[in-house]
Amino acid sequence: MPGLEPTLTHYLLLAAALLVISVVGIIANRRNVLVLLMAVELVLLSANLNFVAFSAYFDDLSGQVMTMFVLATAAVESAVGLALLILLFRRRGNVAVQTLDVMKG
Amino acid sequence: MSFSAFLFYVLAAILLVSAVRVVSARQPVHAALSLVLAFFTMAALWITLGAEFLGLALVVIYVGAVMVLFLFVLMMLDVRQTDQTPRWKRHLMPSLLVGAVMLAEIVLLIVKGVKTKAALPENATSMENTRELGKLLFEDYLYPLELVAVLLLVGMIAAIVLTYRQSRFVKRQEPAEQIAVNRDDRLRVVSMPAETETEDAPVHSLERSPEKTGGH
């Protein structure tokens, strides 16, 4: 088991916990697409924490550059996702996830 | 326990609690504000890891721009009516099961797989973080950087096109409709019965050419 001083393992475990929390939130959330988008942001943030931790561990800044790219992609994703959310609200009048069952067989 | 270790545990606890609040808050506004707290805490963690520029960029981009976008959309939508539906009812247990399995797998992988027990190296070039990052970004990673710029442009255009609503009161040309027009839309051929001459018709009417009925 890892010790008390924060090592790479600690950061990886923290990112894993963050990932699992957000994935559970994505699966369990039936109310609001907006909260779903926020949970996706948390997933990307945990991936970024891994990148930064490995970058600090190997003393290589390439991981931080990757983190910048992931940040930009996440910003694009949230912008397009929010635009789709607005379209959804205009068409249906609510943003509840459980009403989005048109594709269900 | 050193101060950096203490800082790590405090920040990790705040981060996890705020993440739980994001996915479990009843009001979406509370979820958004918890997400702001999570971003702040993550920025602090990155700064303790030596990534100062990324921490500040996270605060500026996410807390300053993306979360404001989220809150704008949140205020535009009428979220109160969506709060009536029951939550956490049928899907909590399966999702917790999936989460537990995922967490067990990842923790097993990390604890068994990461061989090193050494502490993270102290960043000697910590003060030069922004400069080194800029060098790397604009020399080695210039092409991906331009791709990301194009990606941002595409995202901007997509968001505008998706939410663009045409107004009925604006007069504008529609080139697509102008090009797609047929002959039948513009020219109507009317078939008329031919005129018959009567006996006592005046002479000048005979000299007149027959009425053109449009090509027939």
Q: Could you describe the 3D structure shown?
A:
Chain A is mostly helical and 105 residues long. Chain A has 3 helices and no strands. The longest helix of chain A is centred in the C-terminal third of the chain and has 31 residues, at 62-92. The model of chain A has no long low-confidence stretch (mean pLDDT 88). The longest helix of chain B has 25 residues, at 52-76. Chain B is built from 9 helices and no strands. Among the domains of chain B are: 1-79, Up-down Bundle (Four Helix Bundle (Hemerythrin (Met), subunit A)); 127-167. The relative contact order of chain B is 0.05. Chains A and B meet through α1, α2 and α3 of A and α1, α2, α3, α4 and α5 of B.
Proportion of helical residues of chain A: over 70%
Count the DSSP helices of chain B. 9
Q: Largest beta sheet of chain A, briefly?
A: none
- The separation of the N and C termini of chain B measures 101 Å
Number of strands of chain A: 0
The class by helix and strand makeup of chain A works out as mainly alpha
| CATH topology name of chain A | Helix Hairpins
Give the largest interface.
A-B, 75 and 89 residues
What level of helicity do the residues of chain B show?
55-70%
CATH architecture title of the domain at 1-79 in chain B:
Up-down Bundle
The name of the CATH superfamily of the domain at 1-79 in chain B reads: NADH-ubiquinone/plastoquinone oxidoreductase chain 6, subunit NuoJ
Tell me, briefly, the overall form of chain A.
elongated
Which stretches of chain A of 5+ consecutive residues score pLDDT under 50? none
Percent of sequence in beta strands of chain A: under 5%
Q: Please trace the helix and strand order of chain B, writing H or E for each element.
A: HHHHHHHHH
